[in-house]
Q: What sequence folds into this?
């Protein structure tokens, strides 16, 4: 009897009688319920009519967001399956900048469709194989459906608007479209990858969110550190440098002795002589290049001590210290010149040129505007304004997604019909394709097809429409006109020809979505045992984990 009992038990239970584990059907139910639970949380966020989540921190911080990536990062998720789905969805955002919510919805719906088949006795392996076949066919269909477009400003504006409308109020979203597209086109270089780090995103907590704008130049969140330095200048020479203008103590421990006051003064002068010599080189360069009515600005990555600031202020030089390392690169791309690491052999070629500089003070904060760059400038700033912190945070997240959407459109050189049109067309195609698949794998293809419709279904339900009617009307329109692509009109619920309306999604986002979501769903379907692993398994149990081994060791002794 004892032998039969051991065979029926889990091998893990035989090794460790107190181990936490879930087996077979319970493991599948555990995974499916975790995916469906996370799906219900983010479901209402999708689309331009989606709702907003309020996140409240332990210290009372408030964040309002519709961004699935922010929501999944900030939420505390205890269910291991839901946490795994959240990590894979946020990985998509890290790669292409969008598609987080769609990923979670699709995985949850795919597992829900699979659950119906499992209840009827279909083996999970058959379902997983069917999903893999459907994924490959869907990727082929994606390549056939992509629309080749020129990266004109009009097309890029429509891409940015589609992205922003899902995260911000429509009026505010339309106001940010031009700044985002202008910023990406500014930093774009021929035959080189677009570096979005060259777009500075700066915020000022004043005025209204609609006052956010594109700045041809660089805005920094600190100003000059001397009261006598001017706060406004025109036609300025710009020197960007990484040179210490501070008095630095020797690293060697030493004692200095003097006989009288004159000796002490000589010692102080010799200690400062190195720093003063650097300041004199700056002053000489300023006198050499500046004509009447021109200014001279020093932007230093390292420190400038009060003595040096005083010398520079007397010459009318504006000096900023502790500038961000990234701004050193941005400044030279925008205004020309070179970022120097030494003041030896300084020439006029090391200097940039700006038409105007201004310093503004808001409460205790200072903002330094360097504007009027050279003609072919390759760096810029998007200045966000807003009355409070959570509004600024919401706009900043939306701008980052908008920048990525425009960059993806330029890199891909093609777009995908949006508003759920791809999902409807792909589901219609897979239903026809399923007829050619033999055996039970056909059921997996059909489940994949049904799961794709969760995107237009959610878009319609979030807009307050009858989701079933909307889906049926979309499928009917697709059947009548197979060459066109129809998406959800969130205002009327009628099928909308999205290519004519120029509503587009990024090709790379859809491709990544189809690579990540089905693979994770397949892996979760094939899980037949969930156990608590690692050192926690043996906690508080000592030698009970392997009783036979411990006894045999004692006998040998």
A:
């Amino acid at each position: 009897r004892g032998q039969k009992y051991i065979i029926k038990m889990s091998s893990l239970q035989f090794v460790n009688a107190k181990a936490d584990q879930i087996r077979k059907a319970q493991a599948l139910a555990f995974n499916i319920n975790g995916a469906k639970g996370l799906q219900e949380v983010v479901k209402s966020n999708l689309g331009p009519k989606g709702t907003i989540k309020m996140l409240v921190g332990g210290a009372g911080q408030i964040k309002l967001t519709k961004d699935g990536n922010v929501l999944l990062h900030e939420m505390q998720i205890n269910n291991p399956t839901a946490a795994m789905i959240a990590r894979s969805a946020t990985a998509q955002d890290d790669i292409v900048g969008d598609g987080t919510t769609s990923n979670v919805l699709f995985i949850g719906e795919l597992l829900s469709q699979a659950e119906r088949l499992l209840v009827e006795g279909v083996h999970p392996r058959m379902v997983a194989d069917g999903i893999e076949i459907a994924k490959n066919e869907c990727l082929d269909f994606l390549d056939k459906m992509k629309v080749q477009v020129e990266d004109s400003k009009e097309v890029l504006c429509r891409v940015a608007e589609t992205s922003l409308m899902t995260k911000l109020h429509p009026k505010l979203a339309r106001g940010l479209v031009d700044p985002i597209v202008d910023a990406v086109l500014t930093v774009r270089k021929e035959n080189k990858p677009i570096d979005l780090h060259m777009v500075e995103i700066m915020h000022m907590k004043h005025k209204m969110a609609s006052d956010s704008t594109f700045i041809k130049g660089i805005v920094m969140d600190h100003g000059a550190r001397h009261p006598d330095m001017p706060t406004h200048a025109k036609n300025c020479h710009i020197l960007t440098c990484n040179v210490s203008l501070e008095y630095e103590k020797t690293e060697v421990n030493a004692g200095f002795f003097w006989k009288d006051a004159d000796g002490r003064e000589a010692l102080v002068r010799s200690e400062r002589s190195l720093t003063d010599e650097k300041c004199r080189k700056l002053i000489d360069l300023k006198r050499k290049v500046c004509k009447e009515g021109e200014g001279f600005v020093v932007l230093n990555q390292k420190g400038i001590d009060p003595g040096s600031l005083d010398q520079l202020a007397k010459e009318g030089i504006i000096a900023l210290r502790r500038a961000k390392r990234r701004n050193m690169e941005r400044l030279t791309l925008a205004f020309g010149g070179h970022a120097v690491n030494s003041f030896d052999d300084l020439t006029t070629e090391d200097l940039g040129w700006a038409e105007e500089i201004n310093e503004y003070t808001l409460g205790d904060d200072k903002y330094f505007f360097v504007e009027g760059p050279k003609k072919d400038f390759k760096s810029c700033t998007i200045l966000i304004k807003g009355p409070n912190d959570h509004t600024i945070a919401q706009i900043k997240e939306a701008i980052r997604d908008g920048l990525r959407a425009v960059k993806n459109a330029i890199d891909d050189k093609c777009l995908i019909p949006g508003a759920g049109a791809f999902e409807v067309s792909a589901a219609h195609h897979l239903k026809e394709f399923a007829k050619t698949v033999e055996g039970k794998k056909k059921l997996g293809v059909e489940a994949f097809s049904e799961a794709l419709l969760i995107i237009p279904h959610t878009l319609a339900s979030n807009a307050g429409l009858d989701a079933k009617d909307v889906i049926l009307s979309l499928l009917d329109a697709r059947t009548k006109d197979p060459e066109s692509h129809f998406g959800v009109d969130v205002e009327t619920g009628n099928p909308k020809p999205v290519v004519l309306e120029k509503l587009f999604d990024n090709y790379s986002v859809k491709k990544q979505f189809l690579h990540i979501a089905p693979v994770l769903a397949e892996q979760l379907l094939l899980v037949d045992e969930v156990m608590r692993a690692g050192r926690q398994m043996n906690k508080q149990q000592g030698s009970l984990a392997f009783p036979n081994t411990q006894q045999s060791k004692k006998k040998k002794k």
About this structure: The CA atoms of residues 96 and 508 lie 7 Å apart. Residues 1-15, 539-557 have pLDDT under 50 and may be disordered.
